[in-house]
Amino acid sequence: MNKIDKTSPAAADWQQNYDKMIGQDRVIKNRSGIEVEPLYWPQDDASGDYAEKLGFPGADPMTRGIYPTMHRGRTWSQRQLIGLGRPADFNERIKSILKSGASALSIIPCNSVYRGIDCDEVEPEILGTCGTILNTVEDMDISLKDIPIDEISIGLNDPNPFLMLVQMLVVAENRGIPWTKITGTSNQSDYISHFVANHMFYRLSLPGARRVQMDTITYLAEHVPNWNALSIVGQHMQQAGATPAQAMGLTLSTAIQYAHDCQDRGMDPDKFLERFTFFFDISISFFEEVAKFRAGRRIWNNLVTERFGVTNPRAKRFKFHGQTSGLDLTRQQPLNNIARVTAQAMAGIFGGLQSMHTDGYDEVLSTPSEDSAKIAISTQNILKHEAHLCDVVDPLGGSYYVESLTDAMEEEILKVIGQIDDQGGMYKAVESGFVQEMIGASALEYQDQIDNSEQIIVGVNAYQEEEDASSRPVLKRPPKSHMQAQVERLKEIKATRDPAVLAKGLQDLRDAAQSKDLNVFEAELNAVRAGATQGEVIAVLREELGFGQPLVVA
Amino acid sequence: MNDVLTTPARVLVTKIGLDGHDRGSRIIAAYLRDAGMEVIYTSPWQKIEAVVTLAMQEDVDVIGISSLATDHLLVPKLMKALAEADLAHVRVVVGGIVPDEDEADLLAAGVSEVFHPGAVRDEIVSSVEKFAAEATNARPQD
User: Fold this and answer.
1) Chain B hits for A126, Cβ within 8 Å
2) What does the alpha-carbon distance between residue A367 and residue A236 come to, in Å, rounded to a whole number?
C-alpha cells in the first residue's frame, strides 16, 4: 500500500471539500475518550509494520487472533448463563438450552449462594428468584443430572473460595469420572475485580481471598490439569463504569498481579499462563470494542514476553469470554434490545472471542425468561450461519480506521497499566481505592452524557414512545412452595450427617486456614466430602481469613 | 405547610438483601450530593434492622433503595419496620430493575416512587426533593 500523507494533492483536495460541506464539524470521542477522525487512509505505510503490529493469526503478536484458524475453524463456545431456583429446574432448562445449540454450560447460582449463605438462612422473599440454590453435593448432582460432565466444557460462576467447583469435583468422583477429564473455567475467580467492582461475589477479606486463590491454583494445576482456575474479569469493571480502555488496562494489570503471585509460589509462567483466561464486557460502541480486543491481545502477547520471559506460544494466548453489556439495554421499547445485542455480539465476534454469552432482551426488566434466552442463542447462530461472520479470520483487520483505532486504544490501555504500575500493582491500587475512584468518575461522566443527550439512547432520550406494561413480557417466578421444599430438604440433609465426621472435616479446614503449609482448597474438598454445606465451609473461612467487606468510595 | 426546605434534605442511599451491584446507588448518591442534599451512603447487603437504625440515627427524610436482582421484594418488610419504629414520615423510593407486577406491590406497601432504568438526573433529584419536603411536614412534632 502506498503512503499518502495529508499534503498529497488528493488528500488535500478531499479535506477542502469536506470542510466546505460539513461546515462546523463536531468533535466525536468514543467512550474511552479517543477523538475519532472523519476519514482514515494510509498515512503511514501500513505494510511495513505488518509483521510487527499485526502478524498472522496464531503467531506473534496475535493481534489478528490467537489461533491460525480462528472462527473459520472453530467458532466460539455458546455459553449462556442460566440460573433457576431449584437444581431440578436448572437441569431441565439446561438440557433444553443444550438441545437448541449451546455447546457449553454455565451455572448461575442464587444470590444467597454468591453471598455464601445456605438457603435455610435466607429471607424467603428473595430466595431462588435469580439463580439456582447450590448448597450441597446433592444440589450439584441434581443440577448436572444426565449431563456428560466429562465431555462438555463447564463454566462455573463460582467466586472464591470456589465451593461450586468443590461440589462438582465430588460429583465427578461419585460418578467415577477422573478429574483429568473435567474441562472448563472458574468464571468468577477474580477476587480483585469483586473487591473493586462487583461486590456481589466478594466473600473473604482481600488477603484471605488471595491465599485461597493461590492454594486453589496450585492444587488444580496438579489434580485437575484441564481446568482454568483463573478467569480475569474486565466485565465487572466496565459494567461498574470503567471505559473500555480502562477496563482492558485494569484487567491486564490484574493479570500481571496474579502472574506475580503465581511466580512467588514458584510456578513457571510458561506453564501457568496457559491456564489464564479473560472475561470481558462487550458494549455497543462497536468499533471501539473490536479495537479494544485486538489491542488487548497484542499488549498481552508483548507483555508476557517482556515481563515474564514467556516463550511457549500457548502461554501467550489471550483467551477470552465475552458477555454483551446489560448496561446498554433499555426498559423502554424492550424488543429493541435484540438489535442492540446483535450489534454487541458482532463486535465480540470481530474482536475474536473464544466464548460468548448474549443477553436476553428482557434482562433489564427482570431475571431473563426462557424465550428471551432462546432468542439470544439464535442471534449467535444467525450471525454465524446466515450473516457469515465466521468465514474470514479477523475480517476488519486492515481497515484504516480499525487499525488506527487499535493503535490508539493500545496507547490508552498502556497508560492505565502504567498508572497501576505506579501504584505498586493492582492489589495495592484496589486496596487504596485508586481504581474504585477511577471507575466511579467514569461512570458518572457517561451518565452525564446520557442525561445531556450527548449520547443518544433510542427510546430513552430520543425517539420516545408512549408505552404501557403490555409492551413488557410477563414475569414468571418460581413458586414459593418449591423454595420451601428446597429449604426442608437442606434441613433433612443437615440432620442426617455424621456429626463426628462433619466436625472433623470443618476442624481440618480451620487448621488448614491457620497453617501456612496446608492447602485450603484441599481442606475444602475434604470438608464437603464430610458433608459440609457451602454456607458452613464459607463461614469457617470467614472466621479464619476475614469477612469480605468491600471498600466504599462514594 | 411549607414546600421549600430550609435545611438540606437528608437521604440514605443503600441496598438491602443479597445483591452487590452498586453502580446505580453510587450514581444516585453523587446526583443527590451534587444537588446539595446530605447523603448517607452505605455498602450493599444491609439488613433491614440496620437500615431502620441508620435512618433513625441520621434523622433522614428519604431512603433510596437500589435493587438490581429482586432485593426490592424485601421493601414491604422495610416499610413495616419503619412504621414500627415511628418513622412512618420517612419517604422511601426504589430504583433499579423492578418488574411492573412488583411495582404495584411496592406502591401499595407505601413506597413513594419506583424509578426504572432510563430515569434521568433531574427527574430523580426533583422527586427526592419533593419527598423530603413531604417528610419534613409529616414529621411528628415534639
Assistant:
1) 17-18, 70-71, 73-74
2) 18
Q: H or E element: which one contains A345?
A: helix A336-351
- CA dist., res. B133 & res. B124, Å (int): 14
- Measured between CA atoms, the residue of chain B closest to residue A446 is B27
Q: DSSP for A29-80?
A: B-TTSPBPPS----SS-HHHHIIIII--TTSTT-TT-SSSSHHHHS--EE--
Give the DSSP letter string of B13-75.
EE-BSS----HHHHHHHHHHHHTT-EEEE--S-B-HHHHHHHHHHTT-SEEEEEESSSGGGGH
Q: What is the pLDDT of residue B93?
A: 97
- Whose CA is closest to A507, among A526, A535, A534? A526
For the record, the C-alpha cell of A313 comes out as 506460544
Q: Which residue of B has its CA nearest to A551?
A: B43
Question: Does A308 lie at the interface with B, CB-CB under 8 angstroms?
Answer: no
pLDDT above 80: residue A104: no
Please state the rounded mean pLDDT for residues A325-337. 93
**CATH class of the structural domain A229-432:** alpha beta
Q: What are phi and psi of A79, to 5 degrees?
A: -115, 90
Give the residue extent of every domain in chain B. Answer: 10-137
Q: Is A120:A114 a contact under the CB 8 Å cutoff?
A: no
Inter-residue contact B127 to B93 (CB < 8 Å):
yes
Give the domain ranges of chain A: 229-432
Half-sphere exposure of A552 (CA within 13 A, CB side): 17
Surface-to-core class of residue A24, CB atoms within 10 Å of its CB (0-12 exposed, 13-18 middle, 19+ buried): exposed
Cell of A362: 428482557
pTM, entire model = 0.91
Task: Provide the 3-class DSSP secondary structure of residue A150.
Answer: coil
pLDDT bucket at A47, cuts 50 / 70 / 90: low
CB-closest option in A200, A459, A460 to B21: A200
Chain center to CA of A385: 25
**Can you tell me whether residue A295 is helix, strand or coil?**
helix
* Chain B interface includes A81 (CB < 8 A): no
* Lowest-pLDDT choice from A245-259, A488-502, A506-520, B22-36: B22-36
Comparing CB atoms, the residue among B19, B73, B101 nearest residue A125 is B73
Closest residue in chain A to residue B100, using alpha carbons only: A469
Per-residue pLDDT reduced to its tens digit, A397-433? 999 999 999 999 999 999 999 999 999 999 999 999 9
Chain A CB contacts of B43 under 8 Å are 199, 549-550, 552
pLDDT for position A48? 62
pLDDT at A510 > cutoff 60: yes
Across B56-65, average pLDDT: 97
- Residue A69: is its pLDDT beyond 80? yes
The answer to whether the Cβ–Cβ distance between A444 and B74 falls below 8 Å is: no
User: Cα–Cα distance between B11 and B130 in angstroms, integer?
Assistant: 12
Backbone angles phi and psi of B95, in degrees to 5? -135, 145
ipTM: 0.79
pLDDT of residue B1: 46
Name which CATH class applies to B10-137.
alpha beta
Which residues of chain A lie closer than 8 angstroms to B17, CB-CB?
111, 123, 126
Is A198 in a helix, a strand, or coil? coil
What count of CB pairs under 8 Å joins A to B? 102
A363 pLDDT higher than 80: yes
Q: Return d(Cα A421, Cα A194) in angstroms, integer.
A: 20
